[in-house]
Amino acid sequence: MAEASASSSSSSSSGTSHKVDMTPFLDDNKTREETVVQLADLSEDSHLEVALGLPRETRKDRFFRKLSTGHPCTSSIPLRIVNYVRGPRPKVDLPGLFSKAFPNDGTRSHQITTDPVPFLDIDRYILGRHIKLLLESTILRLTRILTNPWLFLILGAAYIISFAFFSRAQSFLTPTSSYITCDSAYWLSNNGCGLDGESCGPFTNSTFDFRCPAQCDSLILQNPRTVGGEQVVFVPLVVGGGDAQHTYRGDSFICAAANQQGLTTNGRGGCASLELVGNFTDFLPTTGNRLTSIGFPTVFPLSFRLSKTHSLSHCEDNRDAALAFNIIITWILFVVLRPRAIVLYWCLVCIGFWHITLFSQPRASPPVLSDGFGAFLPTLFIAYAFWRLAFRFTMPAFSKAPLEASVWYLVPFWVGVLNNITFDKIPISRLTASDLTKRSGAITALVIIIIIVFFLALNQVRVMRKTGWLPHYLKWYIIGGLVVLVVSQLPGLELRVHHYIISMALIPGTAFPTRMSAILQAFLLGMFLNGAAAFGFDSILQTAAELQEDGPSDSLLPTFLTNSTNYNYSIPLVNQTIFWGALPSSWDGFSLLVDDVERYAGAALNFSLAAFDPAIPHFFRLAFTSGDGTGDFTMPATLWPNGTWSGSMDEWFCNVCTPPSKNVKYMTLKVAQHHERHSTEHARNVIEFERQQWMLCEPDTAAWDAPGKGEPVLTKEEIKMRESQIHVDLVRDMVPFWIRGMEAAERGEVLRLEDFLATLETTSSWGESWGESGGDDGWGIGWSEVAHEKKGKKARRRKGHSKAYKFVEDVARQEAADEERKRRMHRFFEDLSALLIASSLPPLPHILQSFSPLPQVTTRTTSLVSVPHASFALRFSDLADIEAACAEAEEERAVRTIDWIGARINKRCAKWTEDLAKFNDKDSHRTPWWDELRRCTEGDHVPSKTEGWNHPVALILAVSTIAPNPLQAVAALHSRALELPPWVDTNILRYTLIIHPEDSPLSNEEAGALFNAVKKQYGLHSYLLSLSLPTPPPPSVLVPALIPRLPPPSSQESRNPPPTISQTPLNPSVPADPSGPHTIRLTETDIQQTARFTREFLVMSLLPWMENISSSTSSLPSKAAMNASAQVGSSISPLPQQRRLAEFATILGDLKLAVTVWEALRKDGKGGSDMLPMLLSPSPALPLHAANALSGMQLQVSDPRPHEQLVALKYAVRWEAGISASDFLNYPVEGERWLVWAAGNSEEPPAALLLAHAALLSSRKHAKRRAALWYLAAANRLEKCGISV
Predict the structure, then answer these.
(1) The predicted structure's pLDDT at residue 951
(2) Radius of gyration of the CA atoms of the chain, in A
(3) What pLDDT is attached to residue 862?
(4) What whole-number distance in Å separates Cα of residue 623 and Cα of residue 191?
(5) Out of 264-278, 683-697, 793-807, which region has the weakest mean confidence (pLDDT)?
(6) What string of H, E and C letters represents the secondary structure of 399-468?
(7) Is residue 481's pLDDT more than 80?
(8) pLDDT: is 548 or 293 the higher one?
(9) Whole-angstrom distance, CA of residue 249 vs CA of residue 282
(10) Cα 708 from Cα 644, distance rounded (Å)
(11) DSSP state of 88
């Protein structure tokens, strides 16, 4: 029935009938027709309302009743919304859950309630069978005897005593002075240690036994820290440790360094000993125990080494054991002892608080108990408020389901208590805008958290509306939000939402007896205890300085006046001085860091470099100071050992938008590029500048398209050549300007290029006296007299001291050449080739190849993680050889390669077998014929259409200063078009190398000016290599043998004969067979200079270029591919950019990215199966990858194609060399089978050697029958090729 009637049965003065709507009290599954409530006889309406718990009609109710009565159409929709939001009236408990709406006093015919039915009390019918499993009820019955309060008190006292002894063993048995924290270090950041680090002494002769806590790997830098030339952030600060003695820089986190070295562990902490060793140079990076340190290539005044020997005891951190102990205790409280809900709640609060204070996250080591008790009392007050507002409505509802309650409460509670561990991988540390934008993935993580919180809050809102409490909570949350909004607008303060504040704000919304409310309550309580115990009750409002900590303050940055243009490397370092700009009015001094140590503090505008070592790099950073405060430091400017100055990233300015009379506003490179490409002001200024230039002259528009009198129409190539000649002509006037600019920089002045160009226009000196002074060659240098008499230098004659000149004269005399031929010979040999020939040196690629591989090289992944390499190999080739080889058909080249390998093997096989029988090395896993096969295969340097390993990545354009016009030679090399097929990737690094011999007609100063001109015109990828190259040449020095390479075809040699000077080799000192002993005739100084160039070319140019290409390709692969195909301008496109990205990532050691891209290429059918076996861990999938790589080749036919044989040979050689021997032989890889697959049915010598090596590997595994079978097959194939075994 929809309503119930009540009538008077006594002598009441007036019998009345009442209608009461009982819908809010009914269960959701019941309808009005199914429930009848019999009411007692009551004489007054008010008595009936009080008996039913109904409130009297309020003014608000009367207002809505009158509104709905008077305006039914207008008020229907708003009233429905309001009625839906406020829920049932009067407020009700959740029906059918753990509470009763009415007491069962027998006065009502139906009780609107149900008893709690725990999940683990199973009583239901399934497929007609009655299944009854009452776990909760059984536990209640069996443990009822253990719920005695006296037992609880006894066990509670025992727990307190046990916990005290546990804490004593954890923190108070080791000397207090030996404890250090996870971020303890001997050196402070920036200038925190004062001038020359005096505040951080002593630097040497000190040892220290220390104890580290657990979980130090998770303590990371929250703000960027500059170390040398790079910045690190969001990792533990560990610098060095890669040398033999494991030396770390003084500002390294000691505990992280000990964890990396294995002296302590992240899970248990530990003890070790530290020794200070003072000055140390070249801290090498290393990786150990999942921690990677960074390198520092220069000197630092404080360093330390670690050792396991110490005198401490009780070193292990017992926090894990304490956690297990407390989890067991809380489970016993919930399931076995089962005290009242309020007692259980206070046990959780106390156990969680003191576990954090003493074990999981103490504020200090050892814990300071006074700090713990100082935060414990306010924690109890707030916890009592939590009980009153939320927990007392939820916890008692689970009293009859202890197992279920232990799951809903204990699991989220301990997750919240340990949120420093459970949420460690989430990239959010502080809810501030600056922190969220600095860390990768923080915004994404925050969005995910907000979505989860939104749905949880939506569920709680649903429960509130269902019980009628939504308006009440909505009102208080709106009021609280407005208060926070107003407070956050206070000037000078920033809102900081700590996680204990989040818990305080959300716990009141969980005051409902639902399982989700129980889970949220427990988690929020644990998170509150973690914040209060570990960090205290920090303010919700903090100043910017408090939030900044050691991060940048966005203060004004000073600028270095010394830069790559005006730094004169030819001046010795002892006489060098660097300069910077003047002081602004708001600052009173400078702080200069040299190699991360403050070396100067004052108001001067220059600093002498006389005290520094010129053989190592140095890093300079500058900041303004005001009193005791210091502003932000600039990015590092680097002075390299070869004299190259790499300026900081903050010295760019726009010469169009910067008026000459104003101070220069410097920008970073990214800001400068954005300014040039997107600034409307810059575009406006450029248009205005061009308009002013046009207004200065009156152009003859009719003559624009007409050639000059007597001048032929120029082609595009001739126009380019004329522009290059104009650049060369300008050098005559520019070199003196650059020299004056360096002299002005020494005085602290800056010369503007615009002013200098204006003086050139007025004096009309451009183009005058070029070639008018007898033999003047355009540099202001006479043909016969090079040095100026007024400088007092010894004059040197160009013809008399040129080795190339002497060499050509001798050859011309032998050949009886006439003057015209002699002039052509001089023109041809007046370059780098002649210089090397005259010095008895091999070609430049052979010289540079002698310095490969380079030891101890560090690369960076796309996520800026440093990857150390013990060695890094480079391969140098002559561009003409590459261009000529690309013109040959792949099939023809494959035939020649296989024949060439067979000929080499046939020539050497007798000697190999003789040596093998002589030495009788049966245990060797390698044979000389396999090593020869591998070297011949690795010597292939010709680009392929299917892979990019042999595609060039850099082009070194080399000239010497003995050329008649070196700058014109550089321009000609840069304008030279690459004669490569369209499938070769031409996106390469162009690098300019200037070789300056000791007997060059140019002085060191002039060579330096030439080098600066090249850098100015062609970029910083340039190098000036000064060599002595004495006469006669020095004795030969043994260097690593060159890899054998396939000689060019005979037809090509006949088509392209070398310049005919003599029929004998011009340089007989170069061995004809590159596989034999390789020597080079260089002095020790020249060897060091060339090695330094090779390393700088790799570290400073090639690797950063490859890393930049990898980063840009990985972020915008489709755009990169589009640009690459657009540049080719042909229907044949180069290799896919994804393939190039995968190869670069593999070379740079970014294996995570490499595996991802290789997998994507494999799924698209574009390769990748040949590389994955060398990158993945051993598994049954590796043979499948190898078989897939070979599946596209028809190797099983009787006569496979030579090109396919060669590709299969490359794969097999790579697999055998790239996979460790233990993994290659053992299950599940069994790599010897891969070699047999690659051999196929080919009867060529390489395939026979693949079978022979597979047989050798099988014999090492004691698979004698299989080895004999493969040996027999290999011998048969060799005999068919005419090679007798």
Answers:
(1) 86
(2) 42
(3) 78
(4) 10
(5) 793-807
(6) CCCHHHHHHHHHHHHHHHHCHHHHCCCCCCCCCCHHHHHHCCCHHHHHHHHHHHHHHHHHHHHHHHHHHC
(7) yes
(8) 293
(9) 10
(10) 45
(11) S
How confident is residue 33, by pLDDT bands cut at 50, 70 and 90?
very low
**Total residue count of the chain as it appears in this document:** 1285
Q: Which two tokens stand for residue 1?
A: 């029935």
Token pair 């000929």 is at which residue?
903
Q: What angle do CA 1082, 1088, 1091 make, to 5 degrees?
A: 100
Q: Between residues 807 and 549, which one has the greater pLDDT?
A: 549
- If pLDDT is split at 50, 70 and 90, which confidence band does 274 have? very high
To 5 degrees, how large is the angle CA 1002–CA 1005–CA 1011? 85
The helix or strand, by DSSP H or E, that contains position 304, with its residue range, turns out to be: strand 303-307
Helices first, then strands: H and E counts in the chain? 44, 29
The Cα 522–Cα 391 span in angstroms is 9
Compute the distance between CA of residue 540 and CA of residue 502 in angstroms, rounded to an integer.
11
pLDDT digits (tens, 9 = 90+) for 957-1003: 998 888 877 887 888 788 888 888 888 888 888 999 999 888 888 88
What is the pTM for the complete model shown? 0.51
211: confidence class by pLDDT, cuts 50, 70, 90: very high
Bridge-partner residues for 578, per DSSP? 607
> Given pLDDT bands bounded at 50, 70 and 90, which one contains residue 1052?
very low
Q: List the structure tokens of 889.
A: 């058909």
Cα–Cα distance, 634 to 621 (Å, whole number): 5
Distances in whole angstroms, Cα of residue 846 to Cα of each of 851, 875, 1042: 9, 10, 8
* Residue 377 confidence (pLDDT): 92
- Residue in this structure with the two tokens 């220059």, named with its chain if needed: 606
147 vs 521, residue with greater confidence: 521
Question: What's the average model confidence in pLDDT over 723-741?
Answer: 61
Name the residue among 292, 225, 440, 297 with its Cα closest to residue 866.
Answer: 292
For residue range 167-202, what is the model confidence (pLDDT) as tens digits?
998 888 888 889 999 999 999 988 889 999 988 888
Per-residue b or e along 630-646, where b marks 16 or more CB atoms closer than 10 Å to that residue's CB: bbbbbbbbbbbbbbbbb
Q: Which amino acid, residue 549? A: E
In this prediction, residue 751 carries a pLDDT of: 63
Listed in sequence order, the residues at least 6 apart from 975 whose beta carbon sits closer than 8 Å to its beta carbon are 720, 721, 724
Which two structure tokens, joined as six digits, stand for 371? Answer: 């700090």
1181-1208 average pLDDT score: 82
Torsion of Cα atoms, 1141 then 1142 then 1147 then 1152, to 10°:
110
Evaluated on CA atoms 1029, 1032, 1035, 1038, the torsion sign reads: positive
Cα angle: 123, vertex 125, 126; to 5 degrees = 120
Answer whether the bond into residue 636 is a cis peptide, omega within 30°: no
Say if residues 1064 and 818 touch (Cβ distance below 8 Å).
Answer: no
What contacts 69, CB < 8 A, 6 or more positions away? none
Long-range pairs for 129-138 at CB < 8 Å and ≥24 separation?
135/403, 136/400, 136/401, 136/402, 136/403, 136/404
Structure token pair of residue 3 = 């309503």
At 230 the three-state DSSP class reads strand
Q: State how far the Cα of 1115 lies from the Cα of 695, in Å rounded to an integer.
A: 46
Q: What are phi and psi of 121, to 5 degrees?
A: -95, 90
Q: Which residues pair with 667 in a beta bridge?
A: 652
| DSSP assignment of 1036-1090 | PEEEPPPPP-PPPPHHHHHHSPPP-S-SS-S-TTS-SSTTS-EEE---HHHHHHH
pLDDT mean across residues, the chain: 76
Q: Which of 645, 611, 660 is nearest to 742 (CA)?
A: 645
Q: Which of 1116, 1171, 1123, 1108 is nearest to 1138 (CA)?
A: 1116
The four Cα atoms 1112, 1115, 1117, 1123 give a dihedral, to 10 degrees, of -40
